[in-house]
Amino acid sequence: MNAIRRPVTVEKPGLFEKTGLLRRLVHDSNGPLTRELVLNPSAYGLPSRVDAHDADGVVKSVCGYCSTGCNLNVSMKDGQAVSLSPATRYPVNLGMACPKGWQAL
Predict the structure, then answer these.
(1) Is 76 helix (H, G, I), strand (E, B) or coil?
(2) Among candidates 90, 78, 83, which has minimal Cα distance to 53?
(3) pTM of the full structure
(4) How many domains does the chain have?
């Protein structure tokens, strides 16, 4: 019994516009989506950030949000943490942080 395969078509006009509206509603109520955070992480967070290159040094730490244990680099200046970033060469988080971790950063 061979089934005839037909291409999937969108029969409801405006479906993509509704999807865009839904995306904006989710974004406005819940914050940025994972893809947005991964592709442009510096666009979210505090309005002004100290450049990590101006730091005195970097201390390794672990994200405490969940039990995964993603590695973080904490940039320090004058004994104070000035910025956080995911460690790029750590096998657990592969240089990224989850959406919950980004919110914690």
Answers:
(1) strand
(2) 83
(3) 0.47
(4) 1
